[in-house]
């Protein structure tokens, strides 16, 4: 059994392999699928998985992941545009924007899109927390400004983060489903 994880990030493929250990092997493949402009991570992931399966040579199922940070007081911004906002505005300036708000609650959401020859499925994982002034050296992306249970994700070890993370939860849900269906 083999699932192809479409990502530019080696760490994400390794994390997927850890969750799917004993269920299926995971190969990382690079493919620049079209990221449609949509407010829905599920729609982006569904289209990405279907396009990757159809365009890549091979018959093994594919998985793609799409993640966003949704800030309550900003109407869910940056949401599906999180990568763009990280590259343009940056994490520090997003913190400054949120610091003006009384309500600093936010959530990470990851949607995994799965496609094989028969079907397309999505699996979601969320992590709720609070936006804070940057702390910590670990992790990546928005981790230094996202606090969960008194620690930012950048202050946690990789194991601590994976045990509670949005991506981990989505992968665990996918692993259960895949084990039942194969
Ligand atoms: P892929 O190659 O896997 O698509 P990506 O970085 O383009 O990688 P993602 O959908 O995973 O796409 O991430 C969207 C944005 O959210 C991007 O700015 C990331 O840095 C950020 N992000 C994703 N997961 C995160 C996490 O666990 N902690 C902090 N920031 C995260």
Automatic annotation (TrEMBL):
GO-annotated molecular function: nucleoside triphosphate diphosphatase activity
GO biological process, one term: nucleoside triphosphate catabolic process
Hydrolase found in the keyword field: yes
Protein name (database record): Non-canonical purine NTP pyrophosphatase
UniProt entry keywords in alphabetical sequence: Hydrolase
GO cellular component, one term: cytoplasm
Xref: PANTHER family: INOSINE TRIPHOSPHATE PYROPHOSPHATASE, INOSINE TRIPHOSPHATE PYROPHOSPHATASE/HAM1 PROTEIN
Entry similarity comment: Belongs to the HAM1 NTPase family.
SUPFAM superfamilies for the chain: ITPase-like (SSF52972)
Pfam families named among the record's database cross-references: Ham1p_like
Superkingdom of origin: Archaea
Taxonomic source organism: Natronobacterium lacisalsi AJ5
């Amino acid at each position: 059994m083999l699932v192809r994880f479409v990502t530019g990030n080696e760490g994400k493929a390794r994390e997927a392999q850890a969750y799917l250990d004993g269920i299926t092997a995971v190969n990382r493949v690079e493919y620049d699928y079209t990221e449609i402009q949509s407010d829905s991570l599920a729609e982006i992931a569904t289209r990405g998985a279907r396009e990757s399966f159809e365009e890549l040579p091979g018959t093994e199922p594919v998985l793609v992941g799409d993640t966003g940070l949704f800030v309550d007081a900003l109407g869910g911004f940056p949401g599906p545009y999180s990568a763009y906002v990280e590259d343009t505005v940056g994490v520090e300036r997003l913190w400054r924007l949120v610091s003006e708000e009384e309500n600093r609650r936010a959530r990470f959401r990851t949607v995994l899109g799965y496609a094989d020859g028969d079907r397309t499925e999505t699996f979601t994982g969320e992590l709720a927390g609070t936006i804070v002034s940057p702390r910590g050296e670990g992790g990546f992306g928005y981790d230094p400004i996202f606090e969960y249970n008194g620690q930012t994700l950048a202050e946690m070890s990789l194991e601590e983060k994976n045990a509670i993370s949005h991506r981990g939860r989505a992968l665990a849900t996918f692993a259960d489903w895949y084990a039942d269906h194969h």
